[in-house]
Fold:
Amino acid sequence: MNETLLEIVNLKVHFDTEDKRVTAVDDVSFTVNNGEIVGVVGESGCGKSVTSESILRLLDEKHTNYEGEIRFNGRNLLSLSPKKMREIRGNDIAMIFQDPMSSLNPVYTVGNQIQEALMLHQNLSKAEARMKAIEMLKLTGIPAPEKRIDEFPHQLSGGMRQRVMIAMALSCNPSLLIADEPTTALDVTTQSQILDLIKSLKDEFNMGTIIITHDLGIVAEICSKVVVMYLGQVIEEADVSSIFETPLHPYTQGLLKSIPHMEGNRNEKLYVIKGKVPTLNQVPPGCRFAPRCEFATEKCKVSAPILESYGERKIRCWNFKEIQESSIQVNRGETLNA
Amino acid sequence: MTRELHVKELTSIKKEMKDKHRSLMVKKFRSNKLALTGAIILTIIIISAIFFPLFISSSPYELDTVNRLQAPSPEHIFGTDNYGRDLLSRVIYGARVSLVVGFSVALLTALLGTIMGLYSAYYKRIDGLLMRISDGLMAFPAILLAIAIMASLGANTTNVIIALTIVFSPLVARTIRSASLVIKEQTYIEALKAQGASTSRIIWSNIFPNIISPLIVQATFIFADSIIVEAALSFLGAGIPAPAPSWGNLLYDGKTVIFNAWWMTLFPGLAIMLTVFGLNLFGDGLRDLLDPHSKSKK
Amino acid sequence: MLNFIIKRLFSLIPVLFIVSVVVFLLVHITPGDPASVILGPEANPEEVAELREELGLNRPILEQYFVWIGDIVRGDLGTSLFMKQPVLTAFFEHLGPTLSLAIMAQTFAIIIALPLGVLSAKFRGSFLDQTFMGLSLVGISVPSFLLGLFLILLFGVELRIFPVAGYKPLSVGFAEHIRYLILPAIALGAMQAALISRMTRSSMLDVLSSNYIKTARAKGVKELIITVKHSLRNAFIPILTIIGQTFGSLVAGAAVVETVFNIPGIGQLIINSVERRDFEVIQGSVLLIATSYVLINLIIDLLYGFVDPRLRVGKK
Structure:
């Protein structure tokens, strides 16, 4: 049950812009197993979307260069021909995107768009595809699917559109689902419904899932493993409870600190990680997070840390052990003083 | 005392920013190949039109029937027409006519269209009336309307300008009206109203400066279109009357002898093409420069 | 849906009213007396006065207008003073050639422009794209009558492949009919083709960068299908708009092109009537053309609903 489904190995993605080459993803590695939900977390510009789009090779390949491998079913996706990639897309690996309104074609019915994948990959006839499409709509919780199937995207609500996207993605029974900010464009109630749906479908189909998000709340709710990215690199990887209980990387700690709390002192200022994310043109030498890190040492500013293993976890920081110790001491101190 | 200093500081900062903006625009213009090429072509044509007649001796009206319908030669670089007149000088003088007509129409339609557009955007009643009239006028294809107006007024240069102004003003009015409506809905206009600014002030000091960019782009294209329509009118005999040299007239003369004297069609034709092409390039370039988000015609 | 059509037809009435007023004014503001022009300079004053009375030219302008409108509503557009036949008849006699020409030109323009625009968008920035766009820029700078003249120079004088003047009606045979219309249709359609191809390119570029195209790719759909099925239909609305807008200049251009190629169509009819001061014909023809132009715009509006389901009336 815990076999490796997808393995990203030392992925680098370079973009050729007008004057220079920009490296959006710089040596990213992680794996996704069957039945696992991996959350990829980071701020905008950290490379999480580029990484996920590289899996299905949806980037503009005229101006993109890859290094490394993306292994799926014993093959390296980065070296497949366009024809073979097309056979995988929507079939073995499916992807859903952030804004369901703009991600569905406005001039075709919802049914037509779901049926397209079915007829393409599974060779179903129009009638068979239609039946299957209705089934999928039912599965994703859309009421009166026989009516809805002939409606156009603009006639549905945001939540329903995202369900349609999910129905479309899962129609051919993929083994891997990639969801790029699937609930960001939805209101809070709908958000949790969609997350529940993803969770239950993952169980039913035993899919591996990658969820890309900047929202730690979502991560806490459904992910089993978390990969934290910053400026094109993975800086921490751990199972979800470890990440929340003992975040190792100062950036992760900062992210967690920034979440406003329901209880506590209302007059307290909200925590913000100092400084801002540099652009990909201004990557700092040494550790990329050093300029903003309260624990940065001279070594951090000069020498870039590598991603090391720490038990089951991974961490990219020179001083994580010392930081860990000092924060435990502080906690002890607090309890003693109380 | 502090307040005066403060105002002086702000004024100098404002001036600095304006200068920076201006030099940025100039830099952008220089690097925008379209606008540059268009501008170069136009400059050449305009300079030829203005200064050339000072240097050549042949008059566009001088008849020389012995030498009629001669192919291009060293004495007559463009050849002669069916009355023996030097074609080169007729083409150059024709440039003057077309440029003057085109420019006048562009200017007048800009004025008329702006006033119509601005006030339509602001006053509902005027809007209803003016837009109905514009719709009515725009229901006619341009050339047909121009022919009909010229038929009423009679053929001479002034009437051509009047006719074309009537034909093209509704288009400008619509564009200005749309642009003004967008600006009008913005909150800073409401803020001005709340402060008691007069309507005139709102329209002219605040809305108008913002529609200058699309106006200039539009005017450039109308310049180009006027040259085309004027040429068509003259070609049909409903425009500038002979023997005045206008590119359209030259083409009309050329048509009658097209099988024997290709130069009479080719050279005026190329002149029209080049001028209109230059104007279109220039307009495209201006649009990229001033109004990059517009989805206007062409 | 029917309601929508009826409502739209009603909204046309004020526009048509203005059109009729404009047409009427144009003709009646003329300096010079139609009656004396008709009878010629030798006519004596009594004959002129008699003709004026007969034509109702002495009545107040407002009355003349309403008489004219009244006649129109009853289907009488007046009688040509020169051709001695009802305007309507003259118009329809001349309609055939113009219609053939316009349809050919429009078809030619669409057939050339759509693929050009789509390819330019697909291969943006390539040599193909730059060449096509350069050509289209030239295309919008050459008025149709000028292109007609150049084509005559090229094909008539130098190459002698196509006939450069005259017209053969359909009754003579389809091939002959087309053959005489090829050069005029190219001359007329070229500018349209340039405009349409530019709009197609920019509209396709917009669509190709949208999210639902990314979704289609993520489903594994083939590039060709993405271009044709997914993109083109969405890109079509602005393209349809341009086709509608430029159809008017196509019709206008037809008038001049007919003169260049000697085709006995509506254009020739109007221009000859202007020369002869045949007011009834001018009024009637211009009114009919303006009206049909307005109707065509209505049809295009209706077509929008056909292409884009978001614009359909009567959705749930």
